[in-house]
């Protein structure tokens, strides 16, 4: 049976938030953890729109903080699927900060996350093929296999490291 196909545009979603004083750290910039929660949230929506099934975060390759986000800014997150495997998909999240006084916009962060889809019996399920259209989508799609290979290598290194780690509490 041939796999279904979905266009990247069908997975694209957006989230905009205001930065409040309770959202900032001692440098008066948005807490990294708060932004990471926004990133995982919006990526999960793109993943669900893509496969219309339950999904879980399998990995976060990186969150690259490129420009600080201040209380006078809003933060816009844009997420979409860039690549799909058998049951997994790569989601790209672009974070744009906009100064609400001046209108100045900058790319504040980027992130790549991998999600896995599960069927009603909690078994991994096949996901559609993703079809890029725009120049940005095509570039991200073409470079995805390299990122997937880096993920496989990093996951194996993490498993090897975990085999040497203890689960004992310090007081035991």
| Order of secondary-structure elements | EEHEEEEEH
**Sheet with the most strands, sense and barrel status:** 5 strands, antiparallel
Q: Give the name of the CATH superfamily.
A: Hotdog Thioesterase
The CATH topology comes to Thiol Ester Dehydrase, Chain A
User: Distance between termini?
Assistant: 55 Å
Quote the average pLDDT.
96
> Which CATH C-level class is it?
Alpha Beta
Give the number of DSSP strands.
7
Query: What is the second-level CATH architecture?
Result: Roll
What features would you describe in this structure?
The protein is of the alpha+beta class. It has a single domain, classed as Hotdog Thioesterase (Thiol Ester Dehydrase, Chain A), CATH 3.10.129.10. 28% of the residues lie in helices and 36% in strands. It has helices at 32-51, 135-162, and strands spanning 5-7, 13-18, 54-65, 73-84, 88-99, 105-118, 129-131. The strands form two sheets. The protein has a five-stranded antiparallel beta sheet. It has a two-stranded parallel sheet with strand order 1-7.
